[in-house]
């Protein structure tokens, strides 16, 4: 089957969930994009999330246009497992592909989806020219730390989702990795084996959950290389979040199962002050410092790139990039 042949999911009524999906065009893979020339010490990328209303969508597009001028290696759009969030994710990811010069990566989760629905979603992305997908098992809606239940006709693990996407056509797949271990893994060794399994299933790279201690990333890299040198050679992209609110980062850490090291917490708490409301400007300044310090050390340790959680704002990440001297990609 020609991987460049056109295919429209919803127009093929007699076969809505095909065995294979083809793309109207081929995106460069993330691994290819990371190997291209870039200014600064390493490439960078940015994560967006689907906006909940029109005002939030306008804010997202303002950030998109700012980042577009900085030429990130790629951008990713997180995924909501149900209803309008899922549909908005697909629509905006398609717009990023068609209407900007950015390279979008579409997130896809197994939560609450049958295999047929997952195939349909991959087909939707393919029909919009998207061949880069981040395959995630995903968290239960409403309670990310709650019990995870497989859809009766779905898949159980991210490695199954990787295989499903790869079997559907000429797709490039990435996965998530967890410097502190996934909160459902009994220990770090088990978590490392799960990451190796996802990479062996066909994932070409992984993007880490946000973390606030570079040692977490370095020890994950060590464990991965020790467990499987071949898979350990694939890009392990660190996820960085410039903190702009103590309350927000505490909530995100609570929902993700990650942690804030004591020394980082002390710096942020001191900046927040003792008033009834945190001093957002002071917290933001410390957050920019922390993200810059972490990024500098990660670059010194030889990371392939940096991936910034933007929260759909451009300014904080832009300031970190400016300090790092890595805000323009060479054409």
Concise synopsis of the structure shown:
This protein has 331 residues and is an alpha/beta fold.
Which key phrases capture this entry?
TIM Barrel, single chain, alpha/beta, disordered N terminus, 331 residues
What spatial form do the alpha-carbon principal axes imply?
Answer: globular
| CATH-derived topology of one domain | TIM Barrel
**Spatial extent as radius of gyration:** 19 Å
CATH secondary-structure class of one domain: Alpha Beta
Which strand order does the major sheet show? 1-2-3-4-5-6-7-8
Q: State the order of secondary-structure elements, H for helix, E for strand.
A: HEHEHEHEHEHEHHEHHHEH
- Report the span from N to C terminus: 32 Å
Strand fraction band? 5-15%
Helix residue percentage:
40-55%
CATH architecture of one domain: Alpha-Beta Barrel
Regions with little confidence, pLDDT below 50 for 5+ residues: 1-18
Quote the average pLDDT.
87
Structural class computed from helices and strand pairing? alpha/beta
The number of helices is 12
Could you give a short account of the major beta sheet? 8 strands, parallel, barrel
Number of strands: 8
InterPro entries: FAD-linked_oxidoreductase-like, Mehydrof_redctse-like, MTHF_reductase_bac
Pathway: One-carbon metabolism; tetrahydrofolate interconversion; Amino-acid biosynthesis; L-methionine biosynthesis via de novo pathway
EC number: 1.5.1.54
Keywords: Amino-acid biosynthesis, FAD, Flavoprotein, Methionine biosynthesis, NAD, Oxidoreductase
């Amino acid at each position: 089957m020609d991987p460049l042949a056109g295919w429209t999911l919803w127009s093929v009524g007699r076969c809505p969930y095909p065995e294979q999906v083809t793309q109207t065009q081929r995106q460069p893979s993330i691994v290819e994009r990371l190997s291209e020339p870039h200014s600064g010490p390493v490439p960078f990328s940015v994560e967006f999330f689907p906006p909940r209303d029109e005002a939030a969508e306008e804010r997202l597009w303002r950030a998109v246009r700012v980042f577009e001028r900085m030429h990130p290696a790629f951008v990713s759009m997180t995924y909501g497992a149900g209803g309008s969030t899922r549909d908005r994710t697909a629509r905006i990811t398609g717009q990023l592909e068609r209407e900007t010069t950015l390279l979008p990566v579409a997130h896809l989760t197994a939560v609450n989806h049958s295999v047929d629905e997952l195939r349909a979603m991959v087909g939707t992305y393919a029909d919009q020219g998207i061949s880069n997908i981040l395959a995630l098992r995903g968290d239960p809606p409403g309670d990310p730390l709650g019990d995870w239940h497989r859809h009766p006709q779905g898949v159980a693990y991210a490695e199954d989702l990787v295989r499903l996407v790869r079997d559907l056509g000429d797709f490039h797949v990435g996965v998530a990795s967890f410097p502190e271990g996934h909160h459902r893994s009994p220990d770090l060794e088990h978590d490392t084996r799960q990451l190796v399994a996802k990479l062996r299933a066909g994932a070409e790279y992984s993007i880490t959950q946000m973390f606030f201690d570079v040692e977490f990333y370095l020890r994950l890299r060590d464990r991965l290389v020790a467990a499987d040198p071949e898979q350990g050679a694939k890009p392990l992209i660190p996820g960085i979040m410039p903190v702009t609110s103590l309350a927000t980062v505490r909530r995100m850490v609570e929902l993700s199962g990650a942690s804030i090291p004591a020394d980082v917490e002390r710096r942020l708490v001191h900046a927040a002050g003792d008033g009834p409301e945190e001093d957002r400007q002071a917290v933001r300044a410390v957050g920019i410092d922390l993200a810059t310090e972490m990024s500098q050390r990660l670059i010194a340790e030889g990371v392939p790139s940096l991936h910034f959680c933007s929260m759909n704002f451009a300014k904080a990440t832009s300031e970190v990039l400016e300090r790092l001297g890595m805000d323009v990609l060479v054409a």
